[in-house]
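Workshop exercise sheet. Pairs work together: one partner reads the sequence aloud, the other fills in the structure field after running the prediction. Swap roles for the next sheet.
Pair: D.N. / O.F.
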Amino acid sequence: MKKTITTKRQGTTISASEHALVYSIVPKDLAGHLYQVTLDIATPDEAGQVVSLPAWIPGSYMVREFARNIVQIKASSDGKKVALKKLDKHSWQAAPCKGPLRISYEVYAWDLSVRAAHLDQSHGFFNGTSVFLSVHGQEMNPHVVDIQRADDAACKTWRVATALPELKARRYGFGTYIAANYDALIDHPVEMGDFALATFDAHGISHDFVVTGKVPNMDMDRIIADVKKICETQIAFFEPRSKKAPMDRYVFMTMVVGEGYGGLEHRASTALICNRNDLPVKHQPEMSDAYRGFLGLCSHEYFHTWNVKRIKPAAFAHYNLRQENYTSLLWIFEGFTSYYDDLMLVRAGVIDEAAYFKLLAKTVNMVTRGSGRTKQSVAESSFDAWTKYYRQDENSPNAIVSYYTKGSLVALGLDLTIRAETAGKKSLDDVMRAMWQKFGRDFYERSLTGKQQGLAETEFESVVEQATGVNVRRFLDKHARGTEDVPLAKLYADFAVLVNEGTANKKASLGVRVVRDGNDCKIANAHEGRAAHLAGLSAQDVLVAINGLRVTAADAGDSLSAALGRYRVGETVQVHAFRRDELLNVSAKLQTDDVPAVSITVQATAKTGSVARPSFQRLVKNK
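Structure field:
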């Protein structure tokens, strides 16, 4: 194992030497959803080698206890059994041994998501955090992985998709791959199966688009054309002169299911999951809302290649994967990414301005509907992601705010503020490029020497001022560290953009969100201060009847709306509901249906003397 891998862009040399840690992983039991993993440690710690599996995966801020999926584990040296002592929920220590140490274990993989591992007869997928033990004290050594084909007829035509550099494997083939260190190993997910594959270049960098799952008449050519535009727009955004991407190759891995949506970013790839109907169909050129949403997901995860994978909060510069890593800055890393994901669609020419403002209005309305935004700031939401945002319950709309959605509005507000203060000469774009230059461009090169750095908790304001000359402390005190709504109507006024607050829906409402639960119409959320809450109803209550007429389970929301459609706002109705096994009978005074819906439009002409129109065009079109 003397082969050397040299990446062309980053100039990093990875040598597979006698000090490399060697893993093998094979789908052992497709129906049982088991991977067999072996780890060979050439020079184990003489005092007894400690190994552990991460408790969480970067990009998803919740402790998930991946080690719970290890079904059995054992150790040996030169064919002889070595005792393993479990130290805590995810760590083991092998007894001291003189020779090389082999650890063998099985991993149960039945989590169909972007965060963990999944295996059955249709495909295999895993993130390294779910399957690869970390060898304490040797995390900076090269890591070699032998991805093996399963001895099963269902796998004869399977291929491998990953951004890991090949060592002794052909691209898309089974064989050995290599990573510079453990952090790199777990940042390259792997998909294996019979997937659809298309490849395109974006500013000279090869991009693979992989789709696993059945999608009749999928228009792959259209997907590739649109995603290529998005990728090239983002590469040029961060490196407008050189148009140099920070990776040598990129892989989009998309798992198609009947119902699902999500993505997780990695340094040279992303894992996506989407509905079958999200993807375009051949000979249907119209842009559906579902496909537009999928492109937004691709744009979001790709933007993370720069923002959070390389430009990081200081708390993430050196991950501690055994416990929570706290930062109050996720509103910058997720919120700003959420702002730019749709903006990049219109800059790339994939959608038009009208579609962009429709998406923006949807975000504004989503944020405004939750009363939690008046109680929790996006900075607090970021810090509490581990316990609140990623562990939402029935009361979450009344208690928390999303650092994704409100964070994107904070980003927009900052952008408009900077443009107004500088007469359009500077923008949030300049801030993002400044952070890229300072923190991101050489992040992984510096990581090999332990000298990487991230954005400190109190550093963002000075970065903005250095990049633009604008002091944004007051704005952030109000809208990022405070709970005030971003005054978009006021900020947009100078940019020939109208934020129109429509009238509230006049239909009678209980102020709840309901879901179908078996044969029941169950309250999922009871919004604070709304009719149901004031009447004493709660989340998890099962609605039975309104004024003696049954509320059915079929299409729960439609059934409730139909039942309430017989009444006017202000009328009082009798609601029967079950709380556990106890029947409730309450009086509820009906209110209007939720809050006024915002719409956003561009004026035909700007105000006299306004610099807004040219500046606005630069905002949307990047000109």
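Discussion prompt: The radius of gyration is 26 Å. What would you look at next?
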